[in-house]
Amino acid sequence: MINPNCELCQRERLTEWYYSDDVCWMAECALCGVPMIVFNGHQRPTISEIEHMKQVSETHFPDYGWRNERLIPDHWHKHILPVAFIHPLERSKDK
Which of 80, 87, 73, 32 has its CA nearest to residue 58? Predict the structure, then answer.
């Protein structure tokens, strides 16, 4: 499902893109400048889709982890930061 009012659903290439396929895309966040991985649909991804995004993220950014992003809470996406910069309570691979 695509929401026409959602910035992430629109997939505009405003910054550098690192990856894109039928499940997700990965680009530099226009607001904070760090990489982020974004699920293509506006619904919650399945476990297998999350695992796919984890593999994509780890391939491009080994030794990095996901940080929960709250600015667009209704579209699944994660910012990708060095693990040392992520508080242990914020580290997430599947939330």
Answer: 80
What is the C-alpha separation between 32 and 24, in angstroms, rounded? 20
pLDDT by residue for the chain (95 residues), tens only, comes to: 778 888 888 888 889 999 999 999 999 998 888 999 999 988 899 999 999 999 999 999 998 888 777 777 888 999 998 876 665 656 554 54
Strand segments (E) across 1-95: 17-20, 24-28, 35-39, 64-68, 77-82, 91-92
Distance CA 63, CA 3 (A): 33
Annotated domain spans of the chain: 1-34+48-72
What is the C-alpha separation between 10 and 81, in angstroms, rounded? 24
- 0.70 surpassed by pTM: yes
